[in-house]
Design goal:
Length: 119
């Protein structure tokens, strides 16, 4: 058990709290950088779920790693017991690109509506 006003970890529940979580993201540490394509299609294939943790009986919501693995295998890791973990932080890039794709659709629909209104 580790606790302070800025960091808290309780191993019996797996709960970690901190003021800020930072992930290394410097361009100098990356190669083969490409924009995520078909993000909206891929996000649409994901299933957000609610569930109860078996060990703590606490309700939660999120994704199922095995389902995400079918679409984004690079976001899922498997430990030696076969349990899967999901890198939720890396989902942000996918969600941003999906929103941008969706905004293009909305903008195009707005332009078509404006054309019809001006007839």
């Amino acid at each position: 058990y580790t606790s302070s006003t800025k960091f808290y970890y309780n191993p019996s529940t797996g709960t970690v709290n901190a003021t800020t979580f930072n992930s290394l993201s410097d361009v100098n540490k990356k190669d083969n950088i490409e924009t995520i394509t078909l993000a909206l299609e891929k996000v649409s294939a994901l299933r957000g779920v609610t569930y109860i943790w078996k060990d703590t009986k606490q309700p939660s919501l999120g994704l199922i790693a095995q389902e995400v693995e079918q679409i984004f295998p690079e976001l899922v890791s498997t430990n030696k017991e076969g349990e899967k973990s999901l890198n939720y932080g890396s989902m942000i890039g996918v969600l941003i690109e999906a929103i941008k794709e969706q905004q293009k659709i909305i903008d195009n629909q707005g332009k078509r509506i404006n054309k019809l209104e001006n007839l």
